Amino acid sequence: MLKIKRFTFNPFQENTYIIYDEKGSAAIIDPGCYEPEEKKELYDFIIQENLKPELLLNTHCHVDHVLGNEWVEQTYSIPLLIHENEIPVLNSAKVLAPNYGFPAYRGIEPDGYMSPGKEISVGQEELQVLFVPGHAPGHVVFYHPTSKICIAGDTLFRGSIGRTDLPGGDHDLLLEKIKSELFSLPDDTIVYPGHGPETSIEFEKIYNPFVGKNASY
């Protein structure tokens, strides 16, 4: 079984996640930590739980989700994996970060690329990689069938979806991919989004105004 811990960082209130197995093998997903106290919160939890970070994963590469990439890579000497379509988004973060009030941001290059349909090992557990573009061109989602955990980034929120008015966004594609990729997961799957509280696939199928059964979009 995988355990999951959420942190909420930076002015965008971005959700950073650590997932880890019974032996402490861990992956850090979308580190949005920028301020020293945010980095300390993440660091202290890893020490407290005796975790061994092995991977750094980005669901997508918008600024608020990559602010802590360099710090995580340097602190734990672990590889960064992204979808190849996110390369221009990651590169643009270097230009955009100062405009959003993050002048100390330093970008890093990915060490590898994730392919949809493949699995990523976190210790002895396997994460499925789902391709859900629309909010960002190379957006991926991580699903762990045994724990029924879905780390959705900025694709699906409780009662909402990711914005699609940023470069590389595609509203119709996002709706299509949520329905085909995420809504095919079991109804009791817990969705951990990039912002805001957790939800479930069942709840969003019924109540989400964009993609639910009574959607008006």
TrEMBL record:
- Specify the superkingdom: Bacteria
Cofactor(s) needed, names only, are: Zn(2+)
Q: Which residues form the Metallo-beta-lactamase domain?
A: 13-195
One GO molecular function term of this record is:
metal ion binding
The protein's UniProt keywords, in alphabetical order, are:
Hydrolase, Metal-binding, Zinc
Q: Which InterPro entries match?
A: MBL_Glyoxalase_II, Metallo-B-lactamas, RibonucZ/Hydroxyglut_hydro
Which PANTHER family does UniProt cross-reference here?
A: HYDROXYACYLGLUTATHIONE HYDROLASE GLOC (PTHR46233:SF3)
| Official protein name in the record | Glyoxylase, beta-lactamase superfamily II
Organism for this UniProt entry:
Algoriphagus ornithinivorans
